[in-house]
Amino acid sequence: MSILNRVAPLCAVLVLGLPISAAAQMTGPTTGPTAEDYRNDARSIDGLIAENYAYLDRFPSGQAPMTERLRAEADAVHDSATLLRYAERRLALLEDAHVITGSSFSDSWAIVPSYADLWIEPEGGLYRITAVRDRSPAQGAGVTVGDRLIRIDGVPTAEAVAAYWRDLGLESGGDAGYAVRVLAAGRRDRPRLLTVQRGDGPPRDLALSNLYAAQRPDTGPITTTRGRDGLTIAFNDSLGDDRTIAAFDAAMTQARRNETIILDLTDTPSGGNTVVARAVMGWFVSEARPYQMHRLMSEERETGVPRQWIEEVLPRAGRHHSGAVRVKVGRWTGSMGEGLALGLDAQGARVTGCPMAGLLGAIYDFRLEHSGLTIKLPAERLSSVSGVPREDFRCPSA
């Protein structure tokens, strides 16, 4: 599940840990965190990751990477702005697009995949575009699958990727795929200057707006169309919107008896919540059925005793469809969209269009003690009911 999908304003938290009534009764000027408080919050992020991040086994040592440069930056933190900047940079070392802060700057890197329109993979020293988001600036500029990204802001892509990691003090480099997707999504407050090349053709310099500035039409939570293959219900990045439940229920009333339902999850990069997902799946079960497996790593680290459970979806009274279900996914199927696809696969739906975004785990919010800054970490590992990690799920062969 993904909790943060939009930019949150940066603000100073002046009164922490008090009920509203107590805060209202305080007299005299309020005081905020001190410089040392902000530094302590910065230093506490390492422990937060070590205790709660569910995917430490991704790293050879089983510990999150850290650099001397970032340790020095933590020691220099003194206010809310320097704390936030440090937190963004510290979390980038996890090479995990599902790890984010609850606040941001106007020039923060864009969140991938929510505000990205290119999926890029390193390939033998090249950087090949393997997916382009529909109705995006990149698609409008004619970028297509198979093109190569050869420069970013005029810098050869490999050099730009190496510089990204050097800036964080990681001289040996990090995950090139993670870095190039962040760089191609760009800063939130400015256009992106990308150079692409198709085959042996001439390079093309493109100035693309970022997806924070690009205005997408308000199409409502879902779009419904009927074709020869069945009734298609497309989710417009709306799995975190409670209005989606009523909209989906209304759409399902249009379904003919035993008609094939095609659920289009190709535009769900911002994830959502299990309430919406279970409401959707509830239409297609007649009894309680398992749909995903959870494992809470923090409890296992603390106690030495593993904790794992299977979540079920239940039928919804008066809402049931017995026709076949097909599910369309792609690189912009993220987080809860991926969980919904796995859950429907467990109910026998046919899933096509893999791979998906591959976002890791279920996000928990962790609030730093003094500043109140929120750090969002995948704290649960998620798997299919058959035990396949969600990020490794591949569509069954047709």
Task: Please outline the helices and strands.
Blueprint: H1 20-25, H2 35-52, H3 68-76, H4 80-92, E1 100-101, E2 118-123, E3 126-132, H5 137-140, E4 148-152, E5 155-156, H6 157-167, H7 176-185, E6 192-197, E7 204-208, E8 222-227, E9 230-235, H8 243-252, E10 261-264, H9 274-281, E11 289-296, H10 297-303, E12 308-313, E13 325-328, H11 336-346, E14 350-352, E15 362-367, E16 374-383
Parallel strand pairs: 9-10, 10-13, 13-14
Antiparallel strand pairs: 1-16, 2-3, 4-5, 4-6, 6-7, 8-9, 11-12, 11-16, 15-16
Helix pairs in contact: 2-4, 3-4, 6-7, 9-11
Q: Would you kindly provide a written description of the structure presented here, covering whatever features stand out?
A:
The protein is an alpha+beta fold and 398 residues long. Among the domains are: 118-208, PDZ domain (Pdz3 Domain), CATH 2.30.42.10; 222-294 and 302-360 and 382-392, 2-enoyl-CoA Hydratase, Chain A, domain 1 (Alpha-Beta Complex). It is 27% helix and 22% strand. It has eleven helices and 16 strands. The protein has helices at 20-25, 35-52, 68-76, 80-92, 137-140, 157-167, 176-185, 243-252, 274-281, 297-303, 336-346, and strands at 100-101, 118-123, 126-132, 148-152, 155-156, 192-197, 204-208, 222-227, 230-235, 261-264, 289-296, 308-313, 325-328, 350-352, 362-367, 374-383. α9 (274-281) runs parallel beside α11 (336-346). The longest helix has 18 residues, at 35-52. The protein is globular, with a radius of gyration of 22 Å.
